[in-house]
């Protein structure tokens, strides 16, 4: 199993924290994050010396979860809490969900990233378990888009 290393400063400098398992709260370990060394990735993306240019909207990373490697992806979206009012079953990325309210979802296979806006904004990692958006920490039920975690970045 790999580990990911977070650095407070750009260029892999400053205080660091290594993580090799899920960590729902990274705030006790570092105050900001400006570079990341992830587990083994293709050589061109193996390091991230400047997190904000790569993906960050600011220097805050609050949690980290390991994502298992999988080849198939499937999830169900519901318009009401407690998995009522089935809207759709997806097996591919969905670039825009802005017209719909998604109050709960059920990941059947794979891992997904739920975005607050179309492919931008807050991101919520959704794994193979039943989830309601408030439990993910979402402010409201509006989801912007969904992407499968394959070779995301």
UniProtKB/TrEMBL annotation:
Keywords: Eye lens protein, Methylation, Repeat
One term of GO molecular function: structural constituent of eye lens
Residue intervals of the Beta/gamma crystallin 'Greek key' domain: 2-40
Domain of life the protein comes from: Eukaryota
GO biological process: lens development in camera-type eye; visual perception
SMART domains: XTALbg (SM00247)
KW Coiled coil (keyword) present: no
Any single Pfam family the record assigns to this protein: Crystall
Functional note: Crystallins are the dominant structural components of the vertebrate eye lens.
Sequence similarity: Belongs to the beta/gamma-crystallin family.
Name of the featured protein: Gamma-crystallin C
